Amino acid sequence: FIEAVAIPGERGLILTGQLGDVMKESAQTALSWVRAHAAELGIKKDFFPKHEIHVHVPAGAVPKDGPSAGVAMTTAITSLATARPSKPLLAMTGEISLTGRVLPIGGVKEKVLAAHRAGVRTVILPERNRKDFDEDVPEDIRADLTVLHATQVREALDWALESVPVKVTDD
Length: 171
Hints:
The chain has seven helices and eight strands; from the N terminus they run E-E-H-H-E-H-E-E-E-H-E-H-H-E-H. By secondary structure, the protein is of the alpha/beta class. Helix 1 crosses helix 3 and helix 3 (about 70-80) crosses helix 7 (about 155-160). It starts with a strand and ends in an 11-residue tail after the last helix. The relative contact order is 0.17.
């Protein structure tokens, strides 16, 4: 799970949740990609200059690191900046490049099985991990999931986010 909030004030990035250096780099890359594509994503011009972004990966004191959270971090930041919620019962993995390519990750079987156990029914995976999914994930689990294979982070965002923003209230 990844959470993101915008805090009025100077722009910047706060990261919490026992993140290692690789996950910190994923978050910074995600923020840079979203800022670079803000106009095409429908993000208001003044959003990033007026807000600090806080990204939190909850799980107590469990250290988290590894190159597989870029797509999820990009989705969380884009969701925040556009007010478009992510779709329910969805999981994703994959690292991103600054140009928006979705890069392959390790541990596909373990990640897919964990998502399935958690009730997830749609999974976004890197295209370059299609063979790992087909060969390593048991057939009964594959049959119970909708799997989308992304080559670009923009594809993943289109699949992961609702098309209509939600109105935020102070209630």
